[in-house]
Amino acid sequence: MLLQGRNITKNFPGALALDAVDFNLLPGEVHALLGENGAGKSTLVKCLTGAYRRDSGAIFLDNQPINPRSTLEAQDLGIGTVYQEVNLLPNLTVAENLFLGRQPRRLGLVSTRRMNAGAREILSGYGLKIDVSRELSSYSIAIQQIIAIARAVDLSGKVLILDEPTASLDATEVQMLFSIIRRLRDDGLGIIFISHFLDQVFEICDALTVLRNGRLVGTSKLADTSRLKLVNMMLGRSLEEEIHKEKDRTASVDPVQLQFKNFGRSGHIKAFDLDIRKREIVGVAGLLGSGRTETAEILFGAIGHDSGEALAEGKPLRLTSPRAAVAQGFAFCPEDRKRDGIVADLSVRENIILALQGQRGWLRALSKSEQTAIADGYIASLDIRTPDCEKPVGQLSGGNQQKVILARWLATNPRFLILDEPTRGIDVGAHAEIIRFIEALCDEGMSLLVISSELEELVDYSQRVIVLRDRAHVAELTGDAITTTNIIRAIASDGHEDKVSA
Amino acid sequence: MMNRLHPALRRILPQLITLVVVLGCNVLVFPDFFKIEMSNGRLYGSIIDILNRGAPVALLAIGMTLVIATKGIDLSVGAVMAICGAVAAAAVAGGSDVATAVVLALCAGIVCGLWNGFLVAVLNIQPIVATLILMVAGRGVAQLITEGVILTFTNEGLIFLGSGSLMALPMPFLIWLGFGVMTAIVVRKTALGLLIEAVGINLRASTLSGVRGNVLIVAVYAISGLCAATAGIIVAADIKGADANNAGLWLELDAILAVVIGGTSLLGGRFTLAGSLIGAMIIQSINTGILLSGFPPEFNLIIKAFIILVILIIQSPIVQSVLFAMRMPPDLSNDDAEPVEGGSARDRDASAQKEGMAP
Predict the structure, then answer these.
(1) Cross-sheet strand order for the sheet of A64-66
(2) Which of A49, A340, A394 is the closest to B204 by Cβ?
(3) Residue A498: is its pLDDT beyond 70?
(4) Of the four listed, A140, B34, B210, B234, which is most buried by Cβ atoms within 10 Å?
């Protein structure tokens, strides 16, 4: 065993980020660390490299207990990390980057000649013949990535952690990187590979560990793992259990309210067709990075579309900005509440009336009493837990912040509500309430598009489910075909079937 | 006791106390400080002088408050004063009447503000850099208008704006007070104030809520330009000439200081115009007090800096929390830190930098 973590637990105020997680890395192994956002991958890596202090548990390197208190210490022990955004200095030369902090000296001065020679020697081991005296930034991200790996391996030499190394590389660059990873593996290094790209995991990795909500879901050899099983592990479902919805599954018979034809933007999301009926909930499923959020943002005008058109009851809609979308009766609760949703220092009241006030324009101000009436109304009807409507929204819990943003949009009386991960990171009670609101809003005649990685939830309330993979809409499930199994099959499938329906 | 005060008043209470203390100190060094006399139908006295002399900084502070509330800063206001003073002087020297000259100068200020707003909101240049451009170039523009000399004028109407009086009060004071009250009414009685605060705290969330964030940002820089133009007219009118090199010199820094002393955070968001105006008066009281005290003039800047340092130390979060802890039992406020996978981008960069780079 090269690197071993036993019972690693890490608590953050309010949440258990890692719950007694075990992790084993063999020498000469590429080990994938997988999980959705918030699963605890980065927290685990940070505990292993000393960037975070673990609350309990033990770490062993070569069967010796270690206790790194900083990433520097971990590096000296032999654990190096390379991040997605290359952590080198772009304005220094390649050689300086490789030798920074340990430049060869001659008579107390840095010997550039010896440093460059050393750099060439290191890089030749990676099949890289480049001018090491040029600035790092003059090379592509892929080359920079390899230089970062070369530096990390040169400094550490036992364990290499790659955090989403391929996120900004193209296909040939990925292959170049993989051949280097294979060579390092054959040299006996243990490599931890974090990626959202399942194809790459299946191509390069020997073993995998899946985390979900801070817990270890499982570790297995890649050879024993099917794609389907892996997606199941990541999304937390087992194939056997299946929930059949007793609820009436008949599709919405109301007229089509919104039509998006060939709607898309290159580089963000492949063009798609989407019809949304009145009184309908359309679910959107897919792994992280599959284009879920991009779908929401393009529908709401947050990123402009470069192809296609939107129609409402046959008439074209202008969706060039969020403001234009709001004017058309659109509403959008974003995934990242803190960054895109709440205005933290403003009160609950001000946050709730913000979209309505924005729609009315600055001249037609809502009076303080009107604002308070609206805010108090939603505090009561959505059961927002706050002492009064003047409390800064940043001081509320996640679930209550989500309800405030929901209230902000309900105040504008929208006809089409887009919810991106409405139940992420909120407690169980608020979770159930939000699902109840979603269903109630649909019953009142609103059209909803709900993005969620909680598949049971999606199956439960959606009349249709769109499945996304690799930034494209790949399947649409309707009627009785909406099951977690079918969704997972569609996500995991390699093939190009376009419709899985009953 | 504090809770019985109106919330708006409670907000600026520290600034009011500071002003009273500074004025009290002035009485110590100059016993006749509060004496006010009436002569030739006009009031005279140190207090009146402070209200009069503080006009440029007070006017600049009004616009600066709104700009800072959007998380911006406007370094160009001093130079814009010089431009607009020059425009007004050139207009009356060229034979225009006073109304035309004032309108031209105000328009010049708005154009300068729109330029700053364009750089910040449309081109996304950092405000401190964007407004630095006009700060440097503005005096050059003013020199071109005055053709390198101090452009003097004798137009009585324009001079009246700088040194005349109405109802026994000096015009500059009436102008800044009127401007301040008007701005406060506009931002607080419409939704402008709320929208500016929302944009300053979280531009992205505000834009996603359908607020025209960029339009608002351009608008506050335009207002700041308008305020600077008004201040520039007053300064030129006061000395009966436009001095491109010295009009409004370094006043942008006094204006920023007035906003900060007034209790508006440079990080944007919640703002108080009344606080900024009191801040401007605090600064002018210090200036006037030093002059009246009879200290040798070479001490002036040091004493001013020292007094401001004391004010800012008292307002600093650390001292405030100590004072707060002394008054109140310890309050265990809820910690709303949530774990985020991978930490914030900044954390991640920092730790990445550390482990990647050190030997």
Answers:
(1) A15-25, A3-12, A56-61, A64-66
(2) A340
(3) no
(4) B210
Rounded to the nearest angstrom, the minimum Cα separation between A387 and chain B is 13
Mean residue pLDDT across chain A: 84
Q: Check CB contact of B219 with chain A, cutoff 8 Å.
A: no
CA B11, B16, B18, B19 torsion-angle sign: positive
Residue A111 lies in a domain: no
Give me the DSSP letters along A118-181.
Answer: HHHHHHHTTT----TTSBGGGS-HHHHHHHHHHHHHHHT-SEEEEESTTTT--HHHHHHHHHHH
pTM above 0.80, yes or no: no
- The answer to whether residue B223 scores a pLDDT higher than 80 is yes
Q: What integer pLDDT is reported at residue B47 of this predicted model?
A: 85
Domain residues for A358?
256-492
A451, containing H or E segment: strand A447-451
Helix (H/G/I), strand (E/B), else coil: B159: helix
Distance CA A102, CA A115 (A): 10
Asked if A159 and A34 sit in the same domain, the reply is yes
Q: Which pLDDT band, with edges at 50, 70 and 90, does A308 fall under?
A: confident
Nearest residue in B to A47, CA atom: B342
Q: Give the contacts of A408 (CB within 8 A, at least 6 positions apart).
A: A351, A352, A353, A354, A355, A356, B209
A278 vs A253, A450, A458, CA distance in Å?
A: 8, 14, 18
SS3 B292: helix
Euclidean distance between CA atoms A328 and A314, whole angstroms: 14
Chain B contacts in chain A segment 7-36 (CB below 8 A)? 12-15, 17
Query: So what's the pLDDT on residue B326?
Result: 64
CB atoms within 10 A of CB A372: 18
Interface touch A87/B340, C-beta < 8 Å: no
pLDDT number for residue B289: 84
Please indicate, yes or no, if residue A65 is contained in any of the structural domains.
Answer: yes
Give the integer Cα–Cα distance in Å for A149 and A161: 9
In this predicted structure, the answer to whether residue B235 has a pLDDT above a threshold of 90 is yes
User: What ipTM score was computed for the predicted complex, to two decimals?
Assistant: 0.78
User: pLDDT band at A250, cuts 50/70/90?
Assistant: low
Tokens of B179: 């401007």
CATH code of residue A209 = 3.40.50.300
The reply to whether A48 falls in a domain is: yes
Q: Which of B206, B337, B352 sits opposite A13 (nearest CB)?
A: B337
Contact check, Cβ <8 Å, A354/B206:
yes
Q: How confident is the model at residue B67 (pLDDT cuts 50, 70, 90)?
A: very high
CA-nearest residue to B269 within chain A is A345
Separation of alpha carbons B342 and A83, rounded Å: 11
B3 Cβ under 8 Å from any chain A Cβ = no
Residue A304 and residue A190 in one domain:
no
How far lies A57's CA from each of A8, A70, B344, in Å? 4, 17, 25
Q: Which ranges in A266-390 belong to alpha helices (H)?
A: 292-299, 322-327, 348-360, 368-381
Nearest to B359 among A42, A102, A343 (CB): A102
